[in-house]
Structures are given as structure tokens and as C-alpha cells.
Design brief:
Shape: globular
Number of helices: 0
Distance between the termini: 39 Å
Strand content: over 45%
Helix content: under 10%
Length: 110
């Protein structure tokens, strides 16, 4: 089972940008996804990308602000987040098949 490790989360002001990374322990050409979970809420889908990186999809709440990408040569998944809002505050997780990372905290201050 592939191991996933997220990084890049931090405290940022509203309107700012962050790039999250998710490093996989081995090469994977499966679909990969970002999810997030805010305090007191269920984990929700954010974005997904196909194994080749040519197909992506986004939750309506982040469409036009977030961009998912991957570098298969580096076994790494990314999430570029722009125009951040306080409601984007959450722990962000990457996922592929049955593997989940430990999450990285993103906090957006107003």
C-alpha cells in the first residue's frame, strides 16, 4: 500500500495563496484526490486528477481558485490554492485507492 505524506499547510491571510504537496512512497498512476475536513464537519471532496494528469475535476466551492496537478516523475501530487477564503480553513488530505495521508492544516484568517 502506498504511503502518502502531505505538506505545505500554514496560516495565511484571506486572498493569499498556498501550494500543498503530497509525496507518495512509490510510483502510482492511479487517480489521486484532495479532500478536506473542517472542524465539526464531514470530510469533503476538493479535487481529483487522473493517472496521466490530463483529466481533472473540482468541487464547486473551489472551482476557478484551486488547481490540482501531479508530477509522476517525482511521485508528487500538488494543490495550488489561490484567493483563499476563511471557509477554506481545514485539514487537507490526499488520497489514492485506500491510502490516506495524515493531513496538513490550512488556516485562512480574515
Amino acid at each position: 500500500q502506498v504511503q502518502l505524506v502531505e505538506s505545505g499547510g500554514e496560516l495565511v491571510q484571506a486572498g493569499g495563496s498556498l501550494r500543498l504537496s503530497c509525496a507518495a512512497s512509490s510510483r502510482t498512476f492511479t487517480n489521486m484526490r484532495w479532500f478536506r475536513q473542517a472542524p465539526g464537519k464531514d470530510r469533503e471532496f476538493v479535487a481529483s486528477i487522473s493517472g496521466s494528469g490530463t483529466s481533472t475535476s473540482y468541487a464547486d466551492s473551489v472551482k476557478g481558485r484551486f488547481t490540482i496537478s501531479r508530477d509522476n516523475a517525482k511521485n508528487t501530487l500538488y494543490l495550488q490554492m489561490n484567493s483563499l477564503k476563511p471557509e477554506d480553513t481545514a485539514v487537507y488530505y490526499c488520497n489514492t485507492l485506500n491510502s490516506w495521508g495524515q493531513g496538513t492544516q490550512v488556516t485562512v484568517s480574515s
